[in-house]
Structure formats: structure tokens, C-alpha cells
């Protein structure tokens, strides 16, 4: 039998408390407000609180650096199968993806996991960790990439934002 970690115990006890008063099981599968938010997986971002998203309102897609390329599969499912009509792409200040380059990450994987780790990276995403050196340019680039991508319908509203982890404020870039 697997041992339980403190994080697993927290998950089950916190969930028991949450489930004891849960009343939202009736919500429909498609998001009620028909939009998707793509943001970073950074633990300092609480998308529901920071962006005013109530349960059932929107899809929230998170990955390292709020990468549009990494999220494309989820964004297509969000629109084509579940009817979203807008994408809000939100990167943030102090993002880890600003602090290293692809080759740095590849080197670290090789050092820590050896050739097997490198093969997994090559099979999964061709050694492209999708880092970026400039935050606002990365926002613009991802929005433009989505607007030009054939998997995203013409005319779909896509906007780009920066969330400031220091202040909790957002500002529009594009």
C-alpha cells in the first residue's frame, strides 16, 4: 500500500470540508461566460480571485509561462467542443521562464535524468521549453501566434495581459 504524504492528507481533508458544503454540481460542462483564460502555473497566481472568475464561468488553462503553443490542444477543445469565444492570455512579472534558456533546461535534465530524460524531452517537445527573454514581447508574440494559427477561428477575440505578482494588478499589452 502506498504511503500518504502530508500534501495528500491535506488534499483529502481539505476536500472533505469543501465537499461537505458543495452545492455547484448542477453547473453545465461548457463555461457559462464562454471564455478561456490562459495563464502561468506559478503558485503566486490565483486566477479565480485575481481575475474575477466564478466556478463554471470560464476555462482556466495553466502551464509554464502561459505558453500558447503548449496550450493549443486545450484551447481548441475549449472552443470547438465547448463553445468558448474569447481567449485572455495572461503572463506575469517575475516568471521563471524569463530566467533561463532552453539549452539551460536541457542541460539540467541531462545532468539530473541522463539520456533517458533527454529522450523523453525530445519525444515530448523537441527540447523547446518555450522560454522567453522579454515579457511584453512574449505576450504579443503568443497573441499574434494564436491569431495566425489555423486551429483558432478567424475573428475569435484574443487579448494579451501581464499580471504583476508584486501588486496583484493586470495591465493590457495587446
TrEMBL record:
Binds 1 zinc ion per subunit. Its cofactor is Zn(2+). The keyword Metal-binding applies. Its EC number is 4.2.1.1. SMART domains: Pro_CA (SM00947). The keyword Phosphoprotein does not apply. It is an enzyme of class 4 (lyase). It catalyses: hydrogencarbonate + H(+) = CO2 + H2O. Zn(2+) binds at residues 40, 42, 92, 95. GO terms for molecular function: carbonate dehydratase activity; zinc ion binding. Keywords: Lyase, Metal-binding, Zinc. Pfam families: Pro_CA. Reversible hydration of carbon dioxide. Belongs to the beta-class carbonic anhydrase family. This is Carbonic anhydrase.
Amino acid at each position: 500500500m502506498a504511503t500518504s504524504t502530508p500534501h495528500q492528507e491535506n488534499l483529502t481533508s481539505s476536500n472533505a470540508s469543501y465537499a461537505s458544503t458543495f452545492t455547484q454540481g448542477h453547473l453545465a460542462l461548457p463555461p457559462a461566460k464562454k471564455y478561456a483564460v490562459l495563464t502561468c502555473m506559478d503558485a503566486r497566481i490565483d486566477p479565480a480571485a485575481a481575475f474575477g472568475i466564478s466556478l463554471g464561468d470560464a476555462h482556466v488553462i495553466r502551464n509554464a509561462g502561459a505558453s500558447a503553443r503548449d496550450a493549443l490542444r486545450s484551447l481548441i477543445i475549449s472552443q470547438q467542443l465547448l463553445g468558448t469565444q474569447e481567449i485572455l492570455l495572461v503572463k506575469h512579472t517575475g516568471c521563471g521562464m524569463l530566467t533561463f534558456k532552453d539549452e539551460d533546461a536541457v542541460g539540467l535534465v541531462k545532468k539530473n535524468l541522463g539520456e533517458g530524460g533527454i529522450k523523453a524531452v525530445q519525444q515530448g517537445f523537441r527540447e523547446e521549453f518555450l522560454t522567453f527573454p522579454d515579457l511584453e514581447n512574449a505576450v504579443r508574440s503568443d497573441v499574434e501566434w494564436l491569431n495566425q494559427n489555423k486551429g483558432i477561428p478567424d475573428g475569435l477575440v484574443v487579448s494579451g495581459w501581464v499580471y504583476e505578482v508584486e501588486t496583484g494588478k493586470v495591465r493590457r499589452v495587446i
